[in-house]
Amino acid sequence: MAFSISRRGVLIGGAALLLAAVAGHFAWRGIDTVSIGGPFVLQDGSGKTVRDSDFKGKFLLVYFGYTFCPDVCPTALGRLSSVLDRMSKEQLADLAVVFISVDPQRDYGERLSGYGQAFHPLITAVTGSREEIDRVAAAYGAKYRFAGDTSKDDYAVDHTSIIYVMDREGKFLTQFTHNATPEAMYAKLQAVLQ
Ligand code: NI
Asked: How far is the CA of 74 from the centre of ligand 1 (A)?
């Protein structure tokens, strides 16, 4: 962090400040951005297997959350969907979005399928076994924690809220939090989706 703060003192311009903040963020999380992501084998609401390799050749946006989320997931997916609405047909044909539910106990079937679609037709909602969810979350550096009694139906899940942007080969390009404005997300995507 000391490195990041001292850099902030000398850098000028919003873009430079953002870069310093991002560098500090990763230093704090201790995650090597180059290693973010990896293969997954999950299932959609109809039980169909969905693999990362299904999207090879396309840019892939990945988000971890759960459908009962009261605020964070709807904010992130709502903003993302408004960004997708601004993109050209050609760009959308080159892009896929996977919403990974960390809550398979409640997110399955129609509820799971309908959730992604409710925000944007491009969003495929998937989930999987606890083991596979944990493995994939760790690969992306995503974290979650159940809050409340999971034997009842009204528990919450605290979770990191990051939209990961992966390239056509599945390598990490950039990421956004749910606080990124649609304008900022759109501009960044225009720059990286080449
Ligand atoms: Ni959420």
From this structure: 7
Write the pLDDT tens digit of every residue in 101-134. Answer: 999 999 999 999 999 999 999 999 999 999 999 9
Q: Where are the domains of the chain?
A: 7-193
> Which residues are close to ligand 1, an ion, with C-beta < 5 A?
65, 69, 72-73
Is the pLDDT at 154 greater than 80? The verdict is: yes
Q: How far is CA 29 from CA 64, 82, 141, 168, in A?
A: 17, 29, 9, 26
| Span from the CA of 3 to the centroid of ligand 1 (angstroms) | 32
Rounded to the nearest 5 degrees, what angle is found at the Cα of 34, between the Cα atoms of 116 and 52?
Answer: 35
Q: Which CATH class is domain 7-193?
A: alpha beta
Question: Edge to edge, what strands does the sheet with 95-101 contain?
Answer: 49-51, 41-44, 123-127, 95-101, 59-65, 162-166, 172-177
What is the structure's pLDDT at 34?
Answer: 73
Ligand 1 mean position, distance from CA 54 (Å): 25
Question: 79: CA distance to ligand 1 center in Å?
Answer: 13
Kindly give the distance from the C-alpha atom of residue 150 to the centroid of ligand 1, in angstroms, as a whole number.
Answer: 16
- Name the pTM for this structure: 0.83
CA of 64 to the centre of ligand 1 (A): 8
What separation in Å is there between the alpha carbon of 157 and the centre of ligand 1? 7
DSSP character for 77?
H
Whole-number mean pLDDT of the chain?
86
